[in-house]
Write a structure and sequence with these properties.
The chain is an alpha/beta fold and 239 residues long. It is 32% helix and 30% strand.
């Protein structure tokens, strides 16, 4: 598993590398000293895991995650325990207090290994879903069996995703990253950290802030496409 260490303190990065050295499952592919540095390296190196400090100069660890379109597995490493609840709102795998205890780190690595195995098996077992596939959706006491072509928008809400189709907006217990891996990217496009859009439902597109795009879907939903994803969208959809 490829790992990136993000911490503004050099000694903290060195100590974490030392603690991780016995674990051959973890391949440290880089270090970042702040959120801006981390954003560039995450996009370039595509780590499976980030070990992330919270308090850093400039943007903090939470603000970094909000800037990402696709978030790797996150292990927070911090000297402060008051952020623990907020950390798990970001679907963190674990929350390690500095100084990091070797036994706690061992437990974290075990969690990461199990998750990685499950992810690999899931990818092997489950085919890509196309617009013509029908899926079963259950929210509370209500059920639907719908064609994916009719779903115009997927919106992340923590560990859940809200589907928009017809006049319905059910929640399903999935993450947006999971759906991004399973849905046909020729039709379903990751617009930003919180949204996947069905491009066949696009009614209008206009330039937006910082080089991004604003997409209007049929029915009125307006979704911002981040600058990075806007570049990708233009590359995929231009003649």
């Amino acid at each position: 598993m490829k790992a990136l260490i993000i911490d503004d303190e050099r000694l903290a990065r060195t100590e974490l590398k030392r603690l991780l050295s016995p674990y051959k499952e973890i391949n440290i592919i880089g270090e970042a000293v702040n959120a801006e540095d981390a954003l560039n390296k995450i996009n370039d190196l595509k780590p499976d895991i980030i070990f992330l400090d919270i308090q850093m100069p400039g943007k903090n660890g939470f603000e970094l995650l909000e800037d990402l379109d696709s978030v790797p597995a996150v292990v927070f490493t911090t000297a402060y325990d008051e952020y623990a609840l907020k950390a798990f709102e970001f679907n963190a795998m674990d929350y390690l207090l500095k100084p990091i205890e070797p036994k706690r780190l061992e437990d974290t690595i075990k969690k990461l290994v199990v998750k990685n195995r499950k992810d690999i098996l899931s990818e092997m077992d489950k085919p890509i879903l196309t617009e013509d596939d029908q899926v079963f959706v259950k929210d509370g006491e209500r059920c639907w069996f719908i064609k994916l072509v009719n779903v115009k928008l997927f919106e992340s809400e923590g560990n859940y995703v809200r589907l928009y189709f017809d006049d319905h907006k059910p929640l399903i217990l999935r993450t947006l990253n999971y759906l991004d891996e399973r849905l046909d990217n020729r039709v379903f496009f990751r617009a930003n950290r919180r949204h996947i859009i069905n491009i066949k439902w696009i009614e209008a597109i206009e330039p937006w802030l910082n080089g991004g795009l604003l997409v209007k879907l049929k029915g009125g939903n307006k979704i911002e496409v981040s600058r990075r994803q806007a570049i990708k969208f233009k590359e995929m959809r231009s003649l």
